[in-house]
Amino acid sequence: MISISEGNLLYEEDKILTDINLTIKSGECVVICGESGSGKSSLIRVLNGLIPELYEGNIEGKFNVLNRTLPTNEFHEYVKDIGVVFQNPKTQFFMSDVYSELAFSMENYGWKRQEMRERIQSLSDIFSLTTLWSKSMVELSGGQKQQIAFASACMLPHKLFLLDEPSSNLDEKHIDILTDYLMWLKKNNQTMIIAEHRLYYLLPVVDRFIVMKNGGIVQNMTKQELLSYKDSEISQLGLRSLTRPTLKQTQDTDGDSTENQLECLNLFFQYKNTDTSIEIEKLAFTSQSVTGIVGENGAGKTTLSYLLTGLLKPKKGMITYNGKRQTTKELISKSFLVMQDVNFQLFFESVEKEIKAKAKRLDLFDVVVQTLQLNQLLKRHPQTLSGGEKQRVAIASAVLSGKEIVILDEPTSGLDLKHMIEVSDMIKKLRQFGIILIIVSHDKEFLNLTCDHLVQMEEGKVNQNNQLE
């Protein structure tokens, strides 16, 4: 199925992949794991043909996939046999509604209309998607988008599936759905290669774990071999826990007279032509505690973060800062939002320019760069970085911004264990500057490490009982 011998990938003068030797049999499920920037996504891009078809890079050595030598001159025919799911599903959508998106790949290869309808119906029954057919792609929650991305990748009868961080930004419910989808592929004897940091949900399907570091393979072990490791040994490999995490109950920290406070009062917001709304009677955030906002995909967490940072204007109610009502303009001037998709906020030609562009706390520059391990990346273009590296750049910009309110929406997307801990430590240190810190996340490991208090949202409202699952 796949054979790589002495495989290298070079970008200009940098060696991204080094001496890769790997064989994967038909029907195997292999998980590629390791630190952010270790080469996982680059290897996926080579295997799916996007390097050098779309992304720059020179391939050396022997890459043989599906009896084709890479890079291939017949890209159109090669990708017909490969199903791909990206970390950010939005990057692989082409149509405006769900049904058209499901049909898109089949239309490209000239399937008959009746065949397309039957295929869509069949897979929609398997993946429980029929109720989403008429929805606009922009209406979908993050979990629903990932479901559609996965189903779209299955529409053609592929021989190989390549998935890059498919659980990124998913809640527990949709991670379980993803596991069911993967088990369906496994039962159908499909070959799967999955680049991932979260590992526990893959245990029902994985055959082997490949651990990468600095562009090379440092471990190649079966599931049974990894399961025999102690938790401390797994951590030493830089890997996340193999056990499903649970949220710890948290308590408010005692405030004092010097704390800053952000408060929502009788807040209401609703998107046009939808039933999606936010309705919060009273909710306060203080600089004395790091607050995590949790809830299922579509619960309203990201919408609330947009309201708190002035990117959306409430229909009713108000947001106050230290007792004073805030306009959207005032909230924008006080706040920094690290978005789920950090590509939307990376503008400059080097990492150093990016994090210094609007910095008001340059006195923290050396500490932030060292803590987030950005020293070797300062001269790199942000768009050449891995997903985890981009996330650390955005977090560095937030820390140096000098803003009074910092909200991080899924800040651990693409982060390995080591960098997750470093980001957590950095966030906790920020409390000394009187910053109101809010984390929107599904990452229970990160929330347990970082937050003093948790707020649970359900269908646009705050769960007053706060019964965390």
Key words describing this protein structure:
alpha/beta; 16 helices; Rossmann fold; 6-stranded mixed beta sheet; 31% helix; 2 domains; 469 residues; 26% strand
Could you explain how this protein is built, in words?
With 469 residues, the protein is α/β, with parallel strands linked by helices. The chain folds into two domains: 235 residues, Rossmann fold; 202 residues, P-loop containing nucleotide triphosphate hydrolases (Rossmann fold, 3-Layer(aba) Sandwich), CATH 3.40.50. The protein has 16 helices and 20 strands. Strands 6-7-8-3-9-10 form a six-stranded mixed sheet. It has a six-stranded mixed sheet with strand order 16-17-18-13-19-20, sandwiched between helices. A four-stranded antiparallel sheet has the order 2-1-4-5, covered by helices on one side. α6 packs parallel to α7. The protein starts with a strand and ends in a 7-residue tail after the last strand.
CATH class of the largest domain: Alpha Beta
Number of helices: 16
Rg (C-alpha, Å): 23 Å
Strand content: 25-35%
Average pLDDT across residues? 89
Give the strand tally.
20
Shape: globular
For this structure, the CATH topology of the largest domain is: Rossmann fold
